[in-house]
Amino acid sequence: MALRMTENHTELSFRYMRIEGRKEKLLDFLLRKFRYLDREEWLENIREKRLTVDGRNADPFQLLKDHQKILYLRPDFLEPEVDSSFDKIFEDDFLVAFNKPGNLPTSPSGKYYKNTLVNLAKKKVRLEKTLHPPSLGPGNQRSHPFCKTKKDCPKNGRNVQRTTNP
Fold this sequence. Notes:
The chain has 166 residues and is α+β, with helices and mostly antiparallel strands. The protein is built from 3 helices and 8 strands; from the N terminus they run ββααβββββαβ. The protein is elongated and about 50 Å long.
């Protein structure tokens, strides 16, 4: 899936692939793949011409074929509000770390794309690309470190160590 954020919406595009050769209608696929909207909400999005299949206005009952491009222009007003306050708690030449409130998702997924720590932090701290370092294991899930560049991100947990303040 590709994701592109514009001024008033988030553009999601992906290529359809059948499961086990089974034929599937667009609406059934959307309900299976994106459970954050119900049948009526998806039909509303299709009526409002927010979905296309191979560049044409979508029909909820059209049978999908492998490799068809589905594009969803998701308006920003559909994204739930979050507590967007967070604090930078550490920064050096390679890493930056933030504390975030519990209802602020860390990265884009499901019904949250713009209202996430990753996207809000990109605006607050100029990052080449926001990347998570390898998992630091169990611990304080409110603290989230990010590498400033891909080359600075350790691979496979090497040279990553969690410390705690006394």
